Each structure stands twice: as C-alpha cells, then as structure tokens.
User: Which sequence fits this backbone?
C-alpha cells in the first residue's frame, strides 16, 4: 500500500512539474507560442462591449483591413469578465494583439510584466497623431516617460447630474457652487421630502467618486499622487481623513437616504430615482447621459437633465476646476503579438482619423482630441458634450479614477473599506490606517 | 476495510480495476492534478501574468492574520448549516405533500419545478432587481416586515439571509423532487396498517413517512452540504460579497482575491483551505452517512 | 384513500407557491415590457403596453447558438458522468480488489471540493492541451467535478442490490459486462436519474468555467450569453428576462413531456 501511494505521488509530482514548466515556457519567450497555422497575421483586438462604440470601432477595423490588406478581428466583452479574461490571457498563447485598458495603474502592471509594446517611437514618427491627443489624457497612457497606450474613446469626467424640475420645486435656482451652498441645497431638498442624492451604494466605485473629489478639493491632486507613488503615510494624510469625515457628514445629514446600500447601478436603480424625481442628483461619469438616454429617453427629451461641476470647498487647497474620472480608455499592443508592426500601424492610422473621431462623436462620446470645440457642439448631446469637452480641456488636472490608477489588490481593498465607511462599519481614521497598512 | 465475506469468492465474473480506471484517470487529470497545482501556487507570487515566482510561506502567514479569512470561514459554515436547515424543512414536507395523487398537486409540482430550469446567473439577475429598495419587490414587502426603506441587501445583517433565501429558492425544486419521488415509493400497505391501528395523519407522518425517507434525507443532505461550498455566482452578482464583507463566504473571498485583486498566490492559499475543508467535509459526511461502508442497509425488506 | 383535507400542508404549499410564483410572474411581466420604464412601473404591476419587442430582439441575436451550446455541454457532461460512474460504482460494490476500494476513497475525499478552487491550474491545463476556447474545455472539467458525487450516490444505491441476483447471473454464465446490463442497469435507474439531474444542473448553470476557458461567441454558453446583454455600464433587464423566458420554455416542454418518465425513474425501487 505504501509503495503504491508513493509511486502515485511521484508520478503526480512529475506530471505537475511538467505541466507548470510547459506553462511557463508558453508564457515567456516571444513568438514561441506557435501560430497554429494562422495564415498571414490574424490579429485580435479585444474591447468592451458597447453597441454604439463597437460599430465605430468595427468601421475603423474594416477600413484598416482594406487599406493594409490585413485581417484584424474584434472581440467584445462585458466589463467585469473582461478584466479577469485579460489578466489570465496576457502572456499566454491566447493573448490578444491589441487590447483595451484603463491606462494608469491598470496598464502599468502589464508594462511591468513586459507584455506591452512601447509606442513612443511610432508616435514620434507620426507627430500629427501624437499632437492630436489632449496631453492630459495621453499622459495617463504614459508610464515612466514611455507611451504604452493611445486614447481610443471619449473623455469621461465625473460631474453632478440633477433633475431640474425637482430643483425648481425645492426653490434652488442654480446648482450650488460652494460646499456651504451645497449643504443648504441638501436641506431644501429634504424639506420637500426628496432624497437629495441618488447613490448606487451596493457598488463601491460609485461611492469612491465622492472621496476622489473631496480629496482633490481639500488637498489638491498631489495628495493622491503621493498615494499612487506609494509614499509611506500618504493614506494617513490629514486631508484623506478629512475627506472621509466629509463623507460621513453627508451620510449623517441624510443626503443619500437610508437604503442606498441596496441600490445597484447596473440595473438603473439610481437612474430610476433621478428620473422619477424621488432623488434630485447623482454624481456620475459622463456615460450617465447616454445611459439615461437609452433607458429613460423621455427624461432626456424633456430637457429635465442638468449638469454641473462638483462644488468648490471653501478653505480647500485644491483648484475648483480640477476634475476626476476616466481620462479615456486606451488601446495597447501586446509585445507578444505575432505582428506588432501591423498592430501599431492600426493605432497610428485609425485612432485620430476623421472618420473615427466623427463616428465617436455621433454616438455621444467626447474624444480626447484637441481642437474639437465646434464639432462637439453638434448632435443630440451637443450641449453636454461641449460642457464636458471644455471642462476637460481647461482642467488644471484630471485625476484618474482611483480604482484604475491603483494596483488591483489595493483598489479592491479600498473599495471594500469605502463601503464600510459609508455603512458606518468603519471610521474615517480606521479607514486611513487600514489603507496605509494595505499599501505596505 | 473490505468486508471479509468477499474474501473467498472467486474473482471471475466480477468487475475489476479496469472498470474504475476511467473515472480515476479522468478525475485525476482534471481535478486532482489541478488541486496539486493549487498547493504549489499558494507558495508563489502570481498575478496571472507571466510565471509564478517562488515565495515560500508568506501567503500562509498572511492567512493566519487575515480577519476577513476567518470571518469568511464562519460565514461559509453558517450558510451551509442554515441552507440545510431551511431547505430540508421546506422541501421535505412539500415533497410529501405534492406526492399525493391529484391534478392540482401535479400542477403545483410543475410550478415548483420551474426555478430549477433557470440558470444561476438568471436567478441572480432576477433577484437583484427584486431586491431594489425603491422600485423592486423589496420596496413593497419591506414595510410589511418592518424594513421600512426596503434596505435588504444593503444591510450587513439582512443581506446574509437574502442570499440564503435566493440559493434555497434555486435548489429547492430539486430536493422537493427527491422527497416527492421517495414518498411515492412508500408502500401503501404500511399506511393501511397504520390506519387500522388508529393512527392519525400526523402520527402516520412521523412513524411511517419519515423513517422511510431516511435514505433520501441522507442523499439530499449530502447534496445540500456539498453544494453549499460552491454557491458562488448568485452571491457574486447580487451582493458581490458586500455590503462590505457581510456576505463574503470563503469561495467568494477566494475569487475576489484571485480575479479582482489578481493576487493568485494568496487566492491559491485560500483555495487550498477550501479544498481541505471540502475533503474534511467529505470524510465527515461519509462517516456519518455510512457511505464508506460496503454493506447494504436495507436487507430483507 | 380519502382523507379530510390537509390544511396545514395546503397552507404551506400555498405560501411556497407565492414565494415561487411571484418572481416567476415578475420574469414574465418584465419580459413583456419596454426597457424604458420597467423599474419605475412597479415590480408587480401589469405592463401597460405589452410588447414582444424584447423576444424579437433576443431571437435575432446569437441566443439560439448559446442555447444550443448550453444543451451540448449539459448533454455531454451527463453522458460522461453516467458512462464513467456507473461501471465504477459497480466495481466498487462487487470487486474484492483493494485498489478499487482505494479509488473509492480518493473519490470520497473529492466529494465536497468546489471547482472554483482550482480554476487557475485548470486554465493552464486546458491551454496546454490546446483545448482553449472550445466546448470541450468546458465539458471536461465540469464533468470531472461531478464524478465523486455520482459515484458515491450510485454506489450507495447499488449496495441495495441483493447479492443473490449477481450470483444467479454468474451461475447463468454471465460475465461482469452482461451482469451490468442485466442486473445493475435496470436496478439503478433511480440513482442514475438523480445523478443525471444533478450533473445536468451543474453543467447547465456553469459560469466560471465557460468564463475563463472560452472566448469566442461561437462557443459561448447561455450563462455567459446573459452577460452579453449587459451594456458597458448597465443591464437591459427586460431583455434579459425575455432571454430567460426563451431559455426556460424549451426545458419546460421537455419537463412536461418527460415528467412521468422522470418521476418513474426516480421512484424505481430495487425490486419491491
């Protein structure tokens, strides 16, 4: 009996070792992946699913395939599965050639693993492409001075969206510009029995936006940059704790109502509150407009939707014109691709082409391209797009969403802890300490 | 371990090892081998990209210090125990009830069976919407049971019970079916004898039905307990482990660490614990149910 | 056997009927709504404008392909599980071979082990076997993890078969193969039905394996297909409900037709 089991375990160990070494071989070594009889260069592009945007992307791919006699194919994924998918596939034989990513910390982990092809040289050879992008956005695709991703989608700043009818009913003439006015507006809204703010609190990222803006207004963008840089004590900075205290203030003032922790953004739980008038405003990224239009078209048509900047906080060190959000999303080229050149070529020729940019604007995106002032004003969402575009163009800083800028495990912990602060399970001070510990 | 009575019988005419070999090979390749790999991965630093880098026991040290881990263990245990209790308490009487002949019972049986036909993701999406505190069923039912603002899945205490409800809702049809089938199998003669002896319905249930259902109870219980270690998509979709960590059972903790935080090494350590727990549970189950014994339990009926 | 009505039982069944019925009603009602107002109209209200637009949209999408994929995966898993576990259970019950008993012990340990725990190594394995992005990639691991339970349940069922039946078959000159067909198979119908349903459930509901091990739309399963209906930042719930209804209807038909057979299978005794 002992002999049989020992033999089994040695066989087992041998197979295991074999398995892992072959897996390891498959992941390192450029191009050794063995193209399974793929004729020419069958390139794969992975991106998120979005009906309107996907059409524009497909058109660009078709143009590229025709002009360059290539065969680039697009595969779309939904948000959450996409990240896991990409993580396990990158570096394996199943990796895409061009992939959608969020820049910043998200891109950096791939760069650190030597999985991304640098694009700076190609951009230098195509200066008109490079100069077309808004600098603050291209910056987010740049790691340690080398460009690894080019913007391929619209800018997505975060701002307040509000129901004009409800505001009028509460006697608020203009969206508050300062924090004192804001808290005042909250009181006025509660007085007419309306939930001041709609918050999809079952997901941490919606709550994160408040923290992002508070910290930026109170301490300026340097505070978060210190956190990203991993400086010791960055999380325990007084500004961070104060930001969380302001969050608690809002919660305690009843600004979010009581059942926000059960509301889900994905099934329009918070949008329904806003459009039905049961809540007055929502802090959200610019995609809210197209989302509302898809799900509640009458609301948009009636012109009831208003938008405004996050208020300035008196006494804060940050610039009230600074913004947070997703600067854009990026396409990067896998360094393991069978045809890096062709993939880079696609990016250089299509991403700033007139047709692509125009197509993006038509589906409601505000591209991260310079000089579009006149064009963004056209179309269904012209007013909003102009607002967003000018906001991004003139912003002294555009801080990336923290859950994209930070490494995945830290941001996961952060989202959980933020939820706990909102729900009263953790104090602001405990949050700072917990995050500091997690960052080590 | 092998009962002595088989010892002297000739082996001709009996199935040999070759009959069980395919199962072993298949299971070995796709289950045992990966299990071994997971143990290895738990000792490495791996983010999913590139190759795992040897780390040693760091993840294990972290595990022992991780309050979320211990909490998730407790939650998994609680969910398993409560699932068993809740599902058995409902499925057993229900199965017995609809086993009786009659059109209306058959119709009920068909309706009760429906949730089984839905996939887990569908059920999760369905219930997420029902739980919306402002526009969903939760907003209607909440006030009736003292939750004024319909805040069910957002409440750290209530969210857990919501999950219990949904997974039970999902699997109840199957267990009801088992009990229904088993009840049909009970010989009428036993009931007739009991009636002659003057036993009422409740007495008959206790003395005739329940004992006859013992085997099914065991099978059903094993399936519930075994299945409870894998409740996963439903929780992921409805609460994501939240609010905070209120519903983060061990499989979910492992998934989040592995596929959201991309700390596959640590997730593998958690997976090893899950595997060990699963194995321990299996051993316990088989001891208690006597599955490991070869002898028949129903001689001479 | 006429008795006075079972009030408590009836009341309990009624309560559970509500618990099951209301969400089902919600699925049906929502699938008939337009997406624009499904949330605000109230969960239990009857849709103001009944519309089949969602169903049309689902049928025009890749739904049929996902459904077929799901059926293929489920059928293949059940086939593999039954084909492998019945002979093994037979051997475990009848063979004096010590190694066979050891197989049983190994499988016993794997009983309560969840498949999610080993997803990363399985992914690596599937890639090495060049099976990535195929239905087989989903079928093989899913079936593998249903094996321990199947073998255990079948073994426990087979134990009840009286020794005499096997010995009689042996005396008639039957080898183990014939014995399996003439003795084991007929008498294990109940166990096979139970195991078959459970394996089918596992396969039908599979989420993590398809997610990680497949990629193209051509091999996507229904569970993943549901996720397809999610935009970048939101769900179209009425559309999802229509998809759910469409995926349930064929199964419902199968159930209604095969109900008697299913119940007969589950109630097949060991020769009472």
Assistant:
């Amino acid at each position: 009996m002992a002999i049989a089991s020992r033999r089994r375990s040695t066989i087992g160990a041998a197979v295991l070792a074999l398995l892992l070494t072959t897996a390891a071989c498959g992941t390192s070594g450029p191009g050794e992946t063995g193209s399974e009889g793929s004729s020419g260069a069958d390139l794969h592009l992975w991106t998120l699913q979005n009906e309107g945007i996907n059409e524009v992307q497909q058109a660009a791919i078709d143009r590229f395939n025709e002009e360059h006699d290539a065969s680039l194919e697009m595969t779309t994924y939904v948000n959450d599965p996409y990240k896991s998918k990409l993580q396990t596939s990158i570096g394996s034989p199943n990796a895409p050639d061009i992939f959608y990513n969020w820049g910043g910390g998200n891109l950096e982990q791939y760069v650190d693993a030597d999985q991304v092809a640098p694009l700076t040289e190609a951009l230098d050879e195509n200066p008109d492409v490079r100069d077309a992008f808004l600098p603050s956005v291209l910056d987010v695709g740049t790691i340690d001075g080398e460009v690894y991703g080019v913007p391929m989608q619209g800018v997505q700043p975060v701002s307040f969206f509000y129901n004009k009818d409800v505001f009028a009913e509460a006697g608020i003439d203009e969206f508050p510009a300062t924090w004192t006015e804001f808290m005042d507006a909250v009181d006025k809204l509660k007085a007419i029995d309306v939930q001041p703010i709609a918050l999809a609190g079952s997901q941490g990222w919606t709550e994160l936006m408040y923290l992002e803006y508070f910290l930026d207004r109170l301490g300026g963008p340097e505070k978060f940059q210190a956190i990203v840089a991993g400086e010791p004590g960055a999380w325990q900075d007084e500004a961070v704790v104060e930001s969380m205290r302001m969050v608690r203030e809002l919660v305690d003032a009843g600004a979010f109502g009581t059942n926000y922790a059960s509301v889900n953004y994905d099934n329009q739980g918070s949008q329904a509150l806003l459009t039905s008038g049961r809540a007055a405003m929502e802090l959200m990224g610019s995609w809210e407009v197209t989302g509302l239009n898809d799900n509640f078209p009458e609301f948009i048509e009636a012109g009831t939707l208003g938008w405004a900047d996050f208020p300035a906080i008196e006494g804060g060190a940050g610039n009230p014109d600074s913004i947070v959000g997703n600067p854009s999303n990026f396409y990067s080229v896998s360094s393991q691709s069978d045809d890096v050149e062709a993939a880079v070529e696609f990016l250089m020729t299509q991403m700033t082409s007139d047709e692509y940019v125009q197509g993006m604007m038509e589906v409601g995106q505000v591209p991260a391209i310079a000089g579009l002032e006149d064009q963004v004003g056209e179309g269904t969402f012209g007013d909003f797009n102009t607002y967003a575009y000018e906001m991004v163009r003139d912003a002294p800083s555009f801080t990336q969403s923290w859950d994209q800028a930070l490494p995945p495990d830290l941001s996961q912990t952060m989202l959980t802890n933020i939820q706990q602060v909102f729900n009263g399970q953790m104090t602001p001070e405990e949050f700072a300490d917990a995050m500091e510990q997690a960052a080590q | 371990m092998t009962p002595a009575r088989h010892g002297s019988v000739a082996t001709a005419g009996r199935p040999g090892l070759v009959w069980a070999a395919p199962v072993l090979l298949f299971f070995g390749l796709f289950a045992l081998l990966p299990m071994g790999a997971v143990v290895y991965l738990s000792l490495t630093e791996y983010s999913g990209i590139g190759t795992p880098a040897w780390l040693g026991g760091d993840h294990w040290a972290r595990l022992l210090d991780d309050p979320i881990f211990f909490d998730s263990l407790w939650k998994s245990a609680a969910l398993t125990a409560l699932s068993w209790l809740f599902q058995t308490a409902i499925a057993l009487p229900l199965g017995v009830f609809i086993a009786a002949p009659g059109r209306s019972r058959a119709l009920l049986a068909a309706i009760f069976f429906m949730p089984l036909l839905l996939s887990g993701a569908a059920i999760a999406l369905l219930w997420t919407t029902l739980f919306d505190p402002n526009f969903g069923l939760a907003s209607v039912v909440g006030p009736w049971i003292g939750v004024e603002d319909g805040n069910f899945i957002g409440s750290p205490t209530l969210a857990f019970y919501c999950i219990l409800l949904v997974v039970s809702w999902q699997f109840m049809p199957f267990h009801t079916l088992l009990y229904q089938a088993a009840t049909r199998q009970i010989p009428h003669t036993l009931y007739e004898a009991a009636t002659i002896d003057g036993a009422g319905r409740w007495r008959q249930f206790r003395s005739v039905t329940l004992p006859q259902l013992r085997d099914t109870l065991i099978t059903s219980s094993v399936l519930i307990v075994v299945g409870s270690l894998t409740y996963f998509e439903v929780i992921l979709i409805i609460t994501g482990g939240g609010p905070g960590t209120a519903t983060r059972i061990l499989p979910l903790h492992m998934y989040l660490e592995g596929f959201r935080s991309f700390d596959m090494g640590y997730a593998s350590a958690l997976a090893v614990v899950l595997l060990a727990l699963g194995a321990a549970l299996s051993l316990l189950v088989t001891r208690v149910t006597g599955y490991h014994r070869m002898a028949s339990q129903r001689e001479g009926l | 056997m006429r008795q006075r009505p079972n009030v408590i039982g009836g009341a309990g069944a009624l309560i559970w009927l509500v618990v099951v019925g209301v969400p089902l009603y919600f699925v049906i009602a929502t699938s008939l709504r337009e997406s624009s107002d499904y949330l605000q109209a109230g969960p239990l209200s009857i849709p103001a404008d009944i519309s089949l637009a969602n169903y049309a949209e689902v049928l025009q999408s890749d739904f049929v392909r996902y459904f077929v994929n799901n059926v293929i995966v489920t059928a293949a898993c059940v086939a593999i599980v039954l084909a492998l576990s019945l002979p093994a259970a037979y051997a475990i019950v009848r063979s004096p071979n010590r190694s066979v008993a050891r197989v049983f012990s190994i499988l016993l340990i794997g009983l309560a082990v969840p498949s999610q725990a080993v997803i990363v190594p399985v992914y690596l394995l599937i890639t090495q076997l060049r099976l990535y992005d195929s239905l087989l990639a989903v079928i093989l691991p899913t079936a593998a993890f249903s094996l321990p339970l199947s073998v255990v349940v079948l073994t426990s069922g087979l134990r009840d078969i009286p020794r005499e039946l096997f010995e009689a078959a042996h005396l008639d000159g039957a080898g183990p193969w014939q014995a399996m067909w003439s003795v084991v198979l007929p008498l294990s119908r109940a166990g096979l039905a139970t195991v078959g349903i459970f394996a089918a459930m596992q396969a039908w509901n599979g989420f993590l394996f398809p997610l990680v091990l497949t990629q193209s739309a051509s091999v996507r399963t229904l569970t993943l297909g549901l996720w397809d209906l999610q935009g970048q930042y939101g769900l179209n719930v009425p559309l999802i409900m229509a998809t759910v209804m469409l995926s349930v209807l064929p199964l419902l038909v199968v159930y209604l037709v095969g109900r008697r057979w299913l119940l007969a299978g589950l109630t097949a005794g060991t020769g009472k």
